[in-house]
Structure prediction request, 390 residues.
Amino acid sequence: MMPHRAPGSTGKTREQYLSGKPIRYYRPRGSADIRHLIDEGFQAFNAARLGEACRIFTDKMLLPEHDTTIALTIAGALTPAGLGGCIVEMMERGLIDFLISTGANLYHDLHYALNFTLHRGSPFVNDVELYEEGVIRIYDVLFPSSVLLETDAYIRDFLVRAGMNGPVSTAEFHYALGRDLMTRQPGCEAYSVVAAAAAAGVPIYTSSPGDSSIGMNIAYHELMNDSRLMIDPNKDVNEVCALILAGKKNGCVILGGGSPKNFYLQGQPTLWEVYGIPKGGNDYFIQLTTDQVVWGGLSGATPAEAVSWGKVNPGVLPDTVVAYCDSTIAFPLFCEYAVGATHGRRPRKELVHKRDALVAQLRAEAKNATRTHPRPEETTETMPDLERHR
Prediction:
């Protein structure tokens, strides 16, 4: 007699759901054919915008004489889809100087570092059945729930090993995690963003560290082990501002939008609005997104709108572009184009090792700005008019 199953059940087993091909980290190699397609075939609409983004990046941002400090921000489930390989290649080549990511992308990157397998699947499945079979789904990416449990266990063990017991920036935390991965999983820097960033000296920041399984396990560590480890968002804000301030020119490549996008872009307003240092706004702005400006959401905010906040230099709007494309399609093409460019490799800045010195420089410049241009403060002389009108 057949066991009872819910209506619409396919009767598939866990093994059948996980029978799809493994998802591998794709590493771009600079295909001449893709460069030809983008330059000659992508002639109008969003295809042309993607081509424009590629050329701004390779022909301007990567010029040695511009010495642009380049940030990559990533939102959405990109590492589960295998796009971490593109990020690894770009970091190794010095084409990305620092990274701002959702915590989820970094957490799912750890699955690859720990040699767990994620599988190609279908979004059109019975999710109740997946739950009963112990299978996790991220759209059409499928993997066993044990991957989550074992990744969590690794993070908790790392937290004990690392012995961090005070406030740290997310860059410091991710650097220590990346070094630990390389020690315990030799060679994983070839296919793990977190490990590769540590190897290349690329700082990784997370704008909302509690919003991921990494943050969940840090919370466990504090509660159960009486740890004083704390992710300090103030350190993150100041470090990102310091990296931006130190850049001869500044530019960003934004995948999706969300919190990572603004966490980077707020650096310029923080400098002029809060610290009194008029850096001037970003010199280059590239965004690949499916969000629309008409909804009023941050992800769809255009470079022109960003000018009003001081996030983008008003004189460089020709060097800004938004391509309304799915990042899982557009970013690998973008990376193939960049890797095959004349300046497809730069000396790495290794900013992760320079954070303290750059923050000290930020502090010195901010104190000098305060002495030179004191802030307007409310005084008793300004109050009588208010009193008379009560």
Summary: The chain has a mean pLDDT of 91. The chain has 17 helices and eleven strands. The chain has one domain: 14-369. The domain at 14-369 is CATH 3.40.910.10 (Deoxyhypusine Synthase).
